[in-house]
Amino acid sequence: MTEKFQAVVIGGGPGGYVCAIRLAQLGLKTACIESRGSLGGTCLNVGCIPSKSLLNLSEEFHNVKNLSSKGIEIGEVKLDLSKMMKNKDKAVSILTKGVEFLLKKNKVSYFKGTGSFKSKNDIIIRDDKDKKTLIQTENTIIATGSVPVSLSGVEIDEKVIVSSTGALKLQQVPKKMVVVGGGYIGLEMGSVWSRLGAEVHVVEFLDHITPGMDKEISSEFMKILKKQGISFHMQHKVEKIKKNTSGAIVSTTSNGIKKDLECDVVLISVGRKPNTEGLDLQKVGVKLDDKKRVKTDKNFKTNQENIYAIGDVISGPMLAHKAEDEGIAVAENIAGQSGHVNYDTIPGVIYTSPEVASIGKTEEQLKELNVKYKIGKFSFMANSRAKAIDDTEGFVKILADEKTDKVLGAHLIGPHAGELIGEIGVAMEFGASSEDIARTCHAHPTFSEAVKEAALSVDKRAIHS
Ligand code: FAD
Ligand code: NAD
Questions:
Q1: From the CB of 144, is ligand 1 less than 6 Å away?
Q2: pLDDT of 1 above 90
Q3: For residues 123 and 135, is the Cβ–Cβ distance under 8 A?
Q4: Engineered SS bond to 311: which of 144, 285, 287, 323, CB 3.0-4.6 Å?
Q5: Which residues sit opposite 263 in a β-bridge?
């Protein structure tokens, strides 16, 4: 007999599994379908988690080699890459199994296989042996995420020409790595392999890295990465990539000047595209937008009743926490509550060293919107905790409305920036002014005092600068 559900979530990534758990918490009989054989989606399997494991381990490797300047003498430091990879795989395995446990605990039925629409209320699940299971549903949530894009005519083999997935499991440190695209993935994975000993070259077709980020932060970021030994080829267009016996040749042009970069590995990190393949959306008439994302309204409803979509497969930043929040909001809407996501307070963090974190509007956006603003800035150079541990690169920048002093955005580069941005997120959610942050007592000595000082500096009354 066909099993019936009140809600079926297609995709078990951070959007999908969180949505399924919330639906079950709200009392709906829920199923979650996942095709990759392991829950947690891109994020846990081939994204956030393995990349952060390698970022952390490669940073430790790099730091330990430089301890003697701080008075700690140790013997020769050697890299055991396969052990490092095993460590990363262990983190992935623990977390993905943890999600499976959470689904079970919340009584969500987990189906392994590829989900597709037979009709609005009938979902077919095909497992890897092509066995079909049919289930019925009142509501369907599409949470099928995204996949990497390549350059036209360039085939990713995940060995010489790799996407982030291949870059997370290289079996040896490349001598030279060319990274195409100076965004989140290129700079995180470029940092990993640079710290482990590769000569890293980033080819970016714009004149700045991390497009969309506050320009002042982005140029400071590039300066710091250059100091760390990463080379940048800005305003360079990749014309072609040709594999040879030792790796590949990346042919670029800039203002008509040709340049070939020979390397053993090329990482293509020029963005990701929504994944709607195999869903048979045409059978139910779900519309896509001009970028092939599932089109939804502000309540995550598609153009079809009782079919919703969330996460990387719809518009907005491709971030795990955005997908999770949308998963919770849509579950609450389906259960008759009023879930919503505040897109003005979604932080973005790049987990390099130093970390880069951003929330709300950039200076460039405020100028374009004709909003008058004040700026408060504070350098980690003047922060006592940063000084004490000799980690003083970067600064905090807070943007506040000129008249009302309401915090409109914050942009940080520096130690633990990804943690510090949380405080500003809470402040912005509560509609705080920069003075509210400035008058909040911050523990001493902490990096968070740099946030307080930046807030004080909005009104030109920072104490330590
Ligand atoms: P996904 O995580 O992509 O999950 C979708 C799932 O659906 C997949 O597991 C897929 O197998 C499954 N699926 C697809 N089609 C079907 C089908 N028909 N039937 C059944 N299952 C299907 N974001 C951050 O916020 N922080 C980070 O540090 C970060 N680091 C990243 C590092 C890398 C290298 C990459 C690639 C991404 C990173 N991201 C990060 C982005 C983050 O991974 C995504 O934004 C997030 O995973 C999106 O969640 P999602 O649930 O929408 O989709
Ligand atoms: P991205 O959008 O962050 O960066 C792509 C970069 O490639 C841009 O700088 C763009 O100008 C450049 N580019 C595009 N086409 C090019 C070309 N032909 N030649 C040279 N440069 C080109 O994309 P990504 O780094 O692939 O990451 C995809 C998404 O995954 C990110 O947008 C982000 O949402 C997510 N992600 C997040 C994190 C995190 O939160 N820490 C980490 C990794 C990935």
A1: yes
A2: no
A3: yes
A4: 323
A5: 248
